Amino acid sequence: MIDNKELKKEKDYLKTVLYILNKEIEKSSGKVADLNDDLQDEMKYAWDATNRLSDVEFTYAIADIHRRSYSRNTIADKLKNYRRMIKSAYFARFDFDDGEDVLPVYLGVATLENDECFYVYDWRAPICGMFYDYEMGEASYVTPNGDEIKGKIVLKRQYKIEKDKIIEVFDTNMQIIDDILRQMLQENTNGKMKNIVSTIQKEQNKVIRKNDVDVLVVSGPAGSGKTSVAMHKIAYILYSLKDKINNSNVLILSPNDIFSNYISNVLPQIGEDNVYQTTFMDYVKTFLTEYKVSGNLTDVYEKIYGKTRDVVYNSIKLKFSAVYLHLIEKYLEQIREEVLGIKDIVVDGKVIIEKDYLKKIANEFDSEGISYLKQYQKIVEKILLHTTIKTQNNKNILAKMRKNLQISKIKPKDLYNRLYSNRDDFVNLIEEIYNIVGTSKQNRFTINELTEIFNYTQSNINKGIMPYEDVSAYLYFKNRLIGSNAQNQIKFVMIDEAQDYSLMQYKIIASIFKNANITLLGDLNQNIMPFSSYKNFDSVLNIFAEAREKIRSESMYLSKTYRSTTEINSFAKTVVADSPLYNQIERHGDPVLVKKLTVKDKYMILLKDALNLKNQYKSVAIITKNQAETDEIKKYVIDKKLQSSVKVYSKRDKTFNSDKIMVMPSYLSKGLEFDAVIVSDANDKNYTLEERNLFYVVCTRALHKLNIYYTSKPSELIVNK
């Protein structure tokens, strides 16, 4: 704590800030009201006078409406931020000595300026980066103009403010900041994800303010703050590039709707409206009108981690693998000459252009990575130019040439269906790919299994149905043929749980977001899509490099985890094999409980434990392996009339509700965190050694308490732990 004299100064400063805030709120409210009235008058005038105004006058009237609307929205945004600041005006301060003056810099979620005096700086301002990057002593920052300002930090201070009350205030150094962070982490989580502006760490701040690359990979262990950092990065981009990017230019690709809802409070808490959040499939299926899409990612996970190993499972396993990407590429290669119309060009019985010459030209354009349709257009353009010169612009020959060069309309659906028109050709193509990539015999499908996959897929596409696992392959195939629907309005894309995307999906993303900055967030130890796994993100970065010229990319690693207690983290580290080294905030709690259950009493004990934990913690989850197990608990909950205390989740649910005990399958828990987690049945059949990543995900959802139950024999992942 600071002394009483200094505390009085701080209280006086808070009073001053609140006085100015209220004045600004009053002034901005009046401006918004006046501009609303002006807008209504302008719109009424433009509507009533439509028939009397000339085109030029009407254009000016509409432009004036847009100008006033922009002004109104700008002031309204400021007003929202001022009202947020009334609840907590600022959270930190540092004093910067530039050699001439000592400038006190107060950090808040927005800027408060009056008569050219800054009372509170937005935490995203360049000068505020020093608070996160430096301890006391030498420090510097770069202005928007590129000038480096050097000096010293001579004071660092943090606050907990509630309206007009300073609840806590203390001068900080690195040790105290760790203590504050540890204290905050010991608190129970209150529902959805919260902002971390007051506790952003140095390595996290570097990621947030990293703005000089096209593709950024941010990796780190569970609980390292990847998602929180990315949300603050979005807020930083919207602030620092506000003249170029607004909320409608930003897209978040989430693993599921529950996760989207879980993170939905972060941006509003730090002064920005929410941006568009959706899943990869919900976004891209708008480009797929030829088929009806069947199923979603949750269905895929349910099949992978369910108990049946049927043709659907094998279809998913094949189509999420690199083998299937090679198959699509090989098939495209096979049909290329046909699609591009590469053949001898004959006019009046005479070969004007030989097939080999056409092929040579086509190969030049193929290396440019453009669609077959674009390649065809360029081939025609070059051949006609060549013929014009050769025939001295003979219009008769040119007309016949154009007719000969015409190809039928490229129909991706028909061409894709042809891939599944002949079983032997399909099986032979897969076998050829196996040989090319060197797939071992034990990892190959048998001819009978490939036949089953062929028949299953053929039956679906003949009915106009496209299973989830086929969507990425078809869209990639379609993009290669006729080009992608480039989403040029999207300028920043954040992809969470990036390790679960297939290379085929990344090829689609690279083709439709060619002008966007992309941030990938991932942890290879949390990859639960076993058929598309890769050892690192280099192969992903290579895909983006192929899609763009002179691409700038970089990988950053968050080396510290903050979520779980030391006991939970230590347990989780033993689950994953060959995990990269990472540090953790030392925060001790209860030992991890591993306990055997009888099948008969399993659900009774799980729910009893959860109800007891709910008396101590705000958020409690029972995490099952799959939906089938979740549904069994649901039957018990209904039978015992526990619906008022327990929420059982399925793929149809979209909201995160910590008011009740949450029961959900493992894959729906990705990215979420809970005060207490109960693992419902970690026996040797439910979590095998091959499923260590899934078990790691489940265990690392817990902040303070982790209770693991099993029936029969425990999983090898927890034996002797």
Walk me through what this model shows.
By secondary structure, the chain is of the alpha/beta class. The chain is 46% helix and 18% strand. The chain is built from 25 helices and 25 strands. The strands form 6 sheets. Strands 1, 2, 3, 4, 5, 6 and 7 form a 7-stranded mixed β-sheet that branches. Strands 10-9-15-16-8-17 form a 6-stranded parallel β-sheet, sandwiched between helices. Strand 18, helix 22 (566-575) and strand 19 form a beta-alpha-beta unit. The longest helix is centred in the first third of the chain and has 45 residues, at 4-48. The protein is globular, with a radius of gyration of 30 Å. It starts with a helix and ends in a 10-residue tail after the last strand. The mean pLDDT is 91.
The shape is: globular
Annotation field: number of helices: 25
The pLDDT mean sits at 91
Terminal residue distance? 42 Å
Number of separate strands = 25
Query: Which structural category fits the helices and strands?
Result: alpha/beta
Q: Strand portion, in percent? A: 15-25%
List the helices and strands and how they pair.
Layout: H1 4-48, H2 55-87, E1 92-97, E2 102-108, E3 112-114, E4 117-122, H3 129-133, E5 137-142, E6 148-162, E7 165-171, H4 174-186, H5 202-208, E8 215-219, H6 226-240, E9 250-254, H7 257-262, H8 266-269, E10 276-279, H9 280-284, E11 292-294, H10 297-304, H11 311-319, H12 322-340, E12 345-347, E13 350-353, H13 355-366, H14 372-390, H15 395-405, H16 412-419, H17 423-437, H18 447-462, E14 465-467, H19 468-482, E15 492-495, H20 503-512, E16 517-522, H21 538-547, E17 553-557, E18 560-561, H22 566-575, E19 583-584, E20 593-597, H23 602-614, E21 620-624, H24 627-639, E22 646-648, E23 661-665, E24 674-679, H25 692-699, E25 702-711
Parallel strand pairs: 2-4, 8-16, 8-17, 9-10, 9-15, 11-14, 15-16, 18-19, 20-25, 21-23, 21-24, 22-23, 24-25
Antiparallel strand pairs: 1-2, 1-6, 3-4, 5-6, 6-7, 12-13
